[in-house]
Amino acid sequence: MKAAILTALNEPLQIRDDVGLADLGPGEVHLKIVSSGVCHSDLSAQNGTIPVATPCVLGHEGAGVIQEVGPGVTQVKAGDPVILSFTPACRECKNCLRGQSYLCDAMVPMMMTPHFVIDGNPVSGMTGCGTFAEEMIVPESAVVKVDDDIPLDIVSLIGCGVTTGVGASINTAKVTPGSSVVVFGAGGVGISAIQGARIAGAAEILAVDLVDSKLNMAKQFGATHVCKPDDFEGMNLQITGGEGFDYALECIGNPVTIRATYDAARRGGTAVVVGVGRMDQNIEFTAFELFYADKNLRGSMYGSSNVRTFMPKLLRLWKAGKLDLENMISRRIKIDEVNDAFRAMQEGEVIRSVINF
Ligand code: APR
Ligand code: ZN
């Protein structure tokens, strides 16, 4: 089958059509991918921000149809349409049992188990997925079944960006009606955070991005105000009187904008780090300010979402016309065009490219 493979850091992905699958083990499912979004984290794997062992089949935001299930699988069967969850929700580990399945302990074993075969060698998929492939194998715990009438190309974005962004506003920040929100970065994740803030009833939503077209898009998805980073202080003054926002979300993964996000939250407000920065990058805070500002500073893994309940909720919001997924798809492409999709994302031309198989 066809798949897009990262062979070495900073190299273009290699498209091969001779990639195989390992045997289907107990508790695993074999699926055909219908669609996969191209997320910034795929680019971050290519450039080393997110460490992955190479070779690696990239892609972690997708939806597909179960072909076959391994021994012991009880929750899904052949023919079921599913969204992939890059964090399994095993229902057994401590984090799942305490209601934080987005921190499921089975994530590392899932990432370490190779399910692809290239040149006779076992190869892993990104985050244990690898949705830039026509077919894949994952543990049963890493799929969320959806209704038969759901168009999988549209909802594939729920596999990462939408759950991460909407979840960051609703589950992590817990945006409240009438509040003020600022979102740094209006890509797939930031646009989703803006939609989450809109759904939660925020009064003002400011989108901050470097790219004009992204700011225009942000308005379409619910931003009430938009600006470039240099104009932030003026907008802060206009919207909050200068005290800062109730909620500030960073959807870029850059230490400078993470620091700006902390600063953008008001005293007693909430700053959420959604973007993924490098392991060797640091951010400075003075010991005094952390105490004095009394802010909540939080990370957000997968939008702090329990996927089995939150993904169906997102689908209902989409069906009710309250969550726009269609317009988040800037381009529909084939797997052979994935390197161009990376370039377009880097140059700020797209919110999401979606690969259809
Ligand atoms: N200031 C403001 N905006 C910026 C800056 C900056 N310094 N640098 C980049 N941006 C904007 C880009 O113009 C782009 O619109 O941030 C946006 C990032 O969007 P995408 O590249 O589409 O990335 P996305 O898929 O949304 O992911 C964002 O979340 O899950 C993580 O790993 C992911 O760290 C990444 C982040
Ligand atoms: Zn992603």
Describe what you observe in this structure:
- The protein is 29% helix and 26% strand.
- The protein has 357 residues and is of the alpha/beta class.
- The protein has 2 domains: 3-161 and 305-356, Quinone Oxidoreductase, Chain A, domain 1, CATH 3.90.180.10; 174-299, Rossmann fold (3-Layer(aba) Sandwich), CATH 3.40.50.720.
- Strands 4, 6, 7, 10, 11, 18 and 19 form a 7-stranded mixed β-sheet that branches.
- 51% of the residues are buried.
- The chain binds adenosine-5-diphosphoribose and zinc ion.
- Adenosine-5-diphosphoribose is lined by residues 39-41, 44, 161, 164, 184-190, 208-211, 214, 229, 251-254, 257, 274-276, 345, 348.
Label this structure with key terms.
2 domains, binds zinc ion, 12 helices, Rossmann fold, alpha/beta, 29% helix, binds adenosine-5-diphosphoribose, 19 strands, 6-stranded mixed beta sheet, Quinone Oxidoreductase, Chain A, domain 1, globular, 357 residues, single chain, 7-stranded mixed beta sheet
Tell me briefly what this model is.
With 357 residues, the protein is α/β, with parallel strands linked by helices. The protein has helices at residues 40-46, 94-97, 107-112, 152-155, 161-172, 188-199, 212-220, 232-240, 255-264, 287-293, 307-319, 338-346, and strands at residues 3-6, 14-16, 20-21, 28-38, 56-57, 62-69, 81-84, 116-118, 121-125, 135-139, 143-145, 180-184, 204-208, 225-227, 245-250, 265-273, 296-299, 329-333, 352-356.
Unreliable stretches covering 5 or more consecutive residues? none
Oligomer: single chain
Helix content: 25-40%
CATH architecture of the largest domain: Alpha-Beta Complex
Give the domain tally: 2
| Total strands | 19
The CATH H-level homologous superfamily of the largest domain: Medium-chain alcohol dehydrogenases, catalytic domain
Distance between the termini: 11 Å
What is the radius of gyration computed over CA atoms, rounded to a whole number of angstroms?
20 Å
**Tally of separate helices:** 12
Bound molecules: adenosine-5-diphosphoribose, zinc ion
Give the class-level CATH name of the largest domain.
Alpha Beta
Largest sheet: 7 strands, mixed
